Amino acid sequence: MMLAAPVIAVVLTLIVGAVLFTLLGHDGFGAVVEIFVKPLFNLYRWQDLLVKAAPLAMIATGLAIGFRANVWNIGAEGQYILGGLAGTGVALATLDMSGSWILPLMLVCGILGGMVWAAVPAILKTTLGVNEILTSLMLNYVAIQLLFYLMRGPWKDPEGFNFPQTAMFSADQTLPMIVPGTLIHLGVPLAAAVALTAFAVMTRTITGFQIKVVGLAPKAAAFGGFGAASTVWIALMAGGGLAGFAGILEASGPFGQMVPQFPTGYGYTAIIVAFLGRLNPLGILAAALVLALTYVGGESAQTTIGLPSAATGVFQAMMLFFLLATDILVRYRVVSGRAAPAPKAAAAKEAEPAKGKAVAA
Amino acid sequence: MTATAVSPRLELKGISKRFPGVVANDHVSFQVPAGAIHALLGENGAGKSTLVKIIYGVQQADEGEIVFDGKPVRIGSPREARSLGIGMVFQHFSLFEAMTVLENIALGMDNPPPRRELEARVREVLASYGLSLDPHRHVHTLSVGERQRIEIVRALLQQPKLLIMDEPTSVLTPQEVEQLFETLRRLASEGCSILYISHKLHEIKALCESATILRGGKVVASCDPREESARSMAELMIGGSLKDLSQKSSGAAGKERFVVSALSAPGEPPFGTSLKEVSFAVRSGEIFGIAGVAGNGQNELLAVISGEDAAGISGSIRLDGTELAGLSVGARRRAGLASSPEERNGHAAVPGMSLADNALLSARSRMGLASGGVIRAKAARDYAGRVIEAFSVKATGPGAAAGSLSGGNLQKFVMGREIMQDPAVLVVSQPTWGVDAGAASFIRQSMIDLARQGAAVVVVSQDLDELLELCDRLAVINEGRLSEPMDVKGISIERVGLLMGGIHGGQAAETRVGAKAEAHERRPEPAL
């Protein structure tokens, strides 16, 4: 049932989405077909799908590691921006140079940039016990303002006609295309490799074991010698590092420069991807394609049937909503609770003392 | 009145219950007269729990009839059972941790009275039965023993005609047990029947006037416990002769292996017990016992020794002269310290993980189950398999989820996992809590064997009999202070009991008597 839940959630999203857009005066069924079906039968669209899915999968993989350990990093968007900015910093400093060392250096700095941004919630959490949800989320807004400041100030391209953007990256600073003549860049296979590596780490190493134990039974983790602080650090460094990696891959790939429009909500969408993929790196690869579909299909639906651009967000949100709802209903049974809630709850607990399974409706 | 006096309070006729692949109860019949204290005996898995769940309406029998006060009844739910006048104190507690004692009691009642009235009644029951418990404390701050008191109070509030008690004394001091027995005897003399389930056979001898013994779901014998010996009843339960524990260490004292001195630690706020200058030394080959009532700092002591709690600790913990204080949990394990906390599920083991993964949890460094941070899955499976075999754990194999094992089997696995690492020092809490007689004697024997090989063993237990049987010396912990160690040979049980109650306990006993009188006087107005 745990594997069926994401499928049920996607199906419910399609049905309710169709009904909703029909009620709003659009062609609801057409919208669903346009967004979720048509791109799949268009080879050209598949390039878009892979290019959009790559950063989603990469960020979601990092987030899932944290979520497994009950470390709720909501700041992937900011870490993604900082990764992009850190790599861009290297690019701007090396604009006049050439060499094959530049791109790897940019990628490494991108990863470090994401990690530094994630280190702030980690330090606050481990030293002062500050909730990482709040700190990581708020840092997203700081990151956006930092981006705007750099674009309009120090990093503005002097030859850019006063547009708020950096200079274009040189050939040595741009990701190579894997399939010539397409949009598919090096980031796509890298994302797949990252997910597979994460899968191996989670299933085969003590670090992965630590993360799972901390998430399932914190006291048992302490008994097993896994420190709470080290787990928080591992979780946030994995999340921040991979979000930063995705950031610099996007900047040096599809964007080819840094612009104020750089953040496109991947950091938030990746949260949905992580849950839709059951926090499993392999599931995340599939889930990233589904969410990429909402981006790609949503864009084409704007031009073909005039659907508002907000439709993409509506579908993504519905998917998370239905996934969480399905999960609740898979794990709990609904009882009518008006007549006598207390004895029923007690009876359910008595029947299964280990886990109270009833939830009063 | 005459009708109920003639017909038994409870009569079971041919009760059968099958689960897929197992017959839990096979035509079980027995009677409990009004005002009788009847024991239900049997090993874990003998079908006792299923039977009482049927009587309490949690489960329905496939066959057979329940007759209550002469009338055949169908008990469809615990609610119906309560309305018949059947109360039950479960072995596993049904409590909401985030709520207070009073709220939990109200939740368990069908028609809870207004809060103040309920509180007055709860305080009255607490006072008249000599139980100490603060109705306003949150359950998550309470020890196991205190949690059990909530269940007892909850059942007593309903003035039951039949009270089912599942292992009620495992967490009480001898004096408290005696007090509980007086309560039960008084209840019985007032006409309430009691169905009493326990593994402690001498308690059954002291309390019960009749007993039904179950084995493999069938009634194998009925007896009068007062005329049987504990040994003969145990043998009826297991259907064979009981193995004696082989003699503990010869008394030839080895060198001091494990020395704790002046160990102090703050308790977890707001209700944890802080440790105050705890000192003891255990020699090679020795089993050292720490007795005490639940919630007097045992869990804190375990956590500080194992290294799980490291904040604000002062004092020293030495293993073969090496200072352990300040080292991590893993470093202490590598130095030869093994430990097993009281709570199995979620602390000593992860219920959602396989036994092989649970072997990794605490045995990975000493047993080489990982190298360079990479799990050696086969080694972990093999080690879990060896533990399963050596400790006869009933499980489908190393891949079985820890949560799928019964409490006793999981405890055997946990103890096996620690003991088979061949530690220099083993510190365990409640090693046989909720474990049946056969498995308990096996676990005790394996600790004795470990000590014989030269290890120092520390057993923290609320079961005084266990400590007396197992240990060479013991000390008593009360409110975070450890008493002077005493030799078990020639020990005075009365003295141990008084130490377990502590000076504060002695005062409390007096105030309880006072409170009782006061409660009766003050009954018309709600207390507090």
UniProtKB/TrEMBL annotation, chain A:
Subcellular location: Cell membrane
Transmembrane segments: 49-67, 79-95, 101-124, 133-151, 178-201, 222-248, 268-293, 305-325
Any one Gene Ontology molecular-function term assigned to this protein's record: transmembrane transporter activity
One Pfam match: BPD_transp_2
Membrane topology classification: Multi-pass membrane protein
Domain of life: Bacteria
GO cellular component: plasma membrane
UniProt keyword annotation of Transmembrane present: yes
Alphabetized InterPro entries for the sequence: ABC_transp_permease (IPR001851)
Keywords: Cell membrane, Membrane, Transmembrane, Transmembrane helix
PANTHER family for the chain: ABC TRANSPORTER, PERMEASE PROTEIN (PTHR47089), GUANOSINE ABC TRANSPORTER PERMEASE PROTEIN NUPP (PTHR47089:SF1)
Protein's name in the database: ABC transporter permease
Organism name: Jiella endophytica
From TrEMBL, chain B:
ABC transporter domain ranges (all copies): 10-241, 260-504
Topology of this chain in the membrane: Peripheral membrane protein
Signal peptide bounds: none
Keywords carried by this UniProt record: ATP-binding, Cell membrane, Membrane, Nucleotide-binding, Repeat, Sugar transport, Translocase, Transport
Record localization: Cell membrane
Gene3D superfamilies xrefs: P-loop containing nucleotide triphosphate hydrolases (3.40.50.300)
PROSITE patterns attached to this UniProt entry: ABC_TRANSPORTER_1, ABC_TRANSPORTER_2
One Gene Ontology cellular component: plasma membrane
Pfam families recorded: ABC_tran (PF00005)
Main subcellular location of this protein, as a coarse class: membrane
Superkingdom as given in the UniProt entry: Bacteria
GO molecular function term, any single one: ATP hydrolysis activity
Record's keyword annotation contains ATP-binding: yes
CDD domains for this protein: ABC_Carb_Monos_I (cd03216), ABC_Carb_Monos_II (cd03215)
Keyword match Thylakoid: no
Homology family: Belongs to the ABC transporter superfamily.
Full protein name: ABC transporter ATP-binding protein
Organism: Jiella endophytica
